[in-house]
Amino acid sequence: MLTNLYIENIAVIEKTSVDxxxxxxxxxGETGAGKSIIxxxxxxxxxxxxxxxxxxxxCESAFVSAEFTDPSEQAAEIxxxxxxxxxxxVVILQRELKLSGSGKCRxxxxxxxxxxxxxxxxxLINIHGQHESYELMSPELHINYIDKLGENEAxxxxxxxxxxxxxSLKSELEKAQYDEAERERRMxxxxxxxxxxxxxxxxxxxxxxxxxxxxxxxxxxKIASALSEVKELLNGGDETDGAIQSLEGACSSIDEITSVxxxxxxxxxxxNNAVYELEDCYNEVVAMSETADGEVESLEEIEDRIDLIHKxxxxxxxxxxxxxxxxxxxRKELDYLEKYEENRxxxxxxxKRARQKAQELAEKLSEKRRATxxxxxxxxxxxxxxxxxxxxxxxxxxxxxxxxxxGCDNIEILISTNPGEDPKPVAKIASxxxxxxxxxxxxxxxxxKDDIDTLIFDEVDTGISGSASQKVGLKLKEVSGSQQxxxxxxxxxxxxxxxxxxxxxxxxxxxxTYTSVTPLDHEGRRNELARIIGGVEITQTTLDYAxxxxxxxxxxx
Length: 557
Prior knowledge:
557 residues; 6-stranded mixed β-sheet; elongated; Rossmann fold; 2 domains; alpha/beta
């Protein structure tokens, strides 16, 4: 639900903050006062394309913020998809517009884009007006009404899962359609690549080992000299003792006093351990010397191996691991192509079964839609008749089509507003006022099924009489029982039914126009209704009539 709208420097609005409530929220005001600016501001914060002309004259930037509480689970889910989470059940959308064009968008204080605002906004607010009846003007969206009324979510989800599987298998099958010459060429290439890599007989880590071996061979004399010197220093030579012998002598000397001097016991243990450690080091150095002396591979052989790996890496991957991965994939593809006929027949059979399942689910869904369409037409027609469109004929045209994401149906709502005329597409028949009333009728039929918490009707009363306005107001009131409704209106009959009433007014100060939005109390509403009824001159009669309308409106609540 939209709980607060803050607007700054949008057209004639310098700065205003409006708190909206549950139920029916009505906005009224004189022509040109700025009612359309409220809708433009909401559209802006919902990510719609905007013009720099929307920025107030003399200002470099404009700002709109919309706060929503307790968003629907569907809205919360789309927010999470984009990396946002309602904070304590609150979602705040913000948009800054700049003359320079470098505006900023935020959700709960974090940066985002206008595209994300738009993607999220459609799950928070539906705007319906003479220029916003996009859903009705777009036949491809009409199927959603039928699915909502029929509560087809489970069946549609099951079908779409089957359809995705079928499309995936079909795509795989199409990729597998080789002609024989192309298959032979591909197999020959793969055989060459597999043979070349298998002949190389590489293993993970081999390159690093070769580099180390090359380094050892290049420094063989230096290594041998160092190891020889270490052996002599540790174990002595023909005429000198080494560190091991010297340390053994120290052990013998300290051991002589351990029985009479307890403090020497610890030193004795440490010296003996040091002897064992040095002997281990000596043995390892001896083994290293033997390994270095026993090196059989020549430097030339190692260089050739390194060159081979470099050559293969230019074709199959920068590392041996990548080349081995390439080899594994090449083997699998070669095996697939060698068993092409067998694999293709199996894949074709899987694809056929998947399509049959999707088709069965689509036809089951289609039958349910056909039954729902009858009740949809009847219920919407009944609602539109109440809204002073008694001669309307409404038909849901359902035609079979190839399987797509929605099943096997093309669904379009056809309408006739005059007796004797055949129903035709909505876009070709309905006027702006008729579209708004039709959308109101549909929303009333789907009131318990719609996931959008806030509905905005912009001048839904355009082109209708006072009696029809009363009926439109009653339907708006009915819808507002399950969803928050904001309505911009010129009709007192609608305004009188509001749960919350806001007056949009403008004044000129020092040559500048300022628009304000003010919540009205009972007295303020009475005066505003009297203004709408009587125009410039407000009489006691119009005030009394306005009071009567408010009392009647209260009785409807």
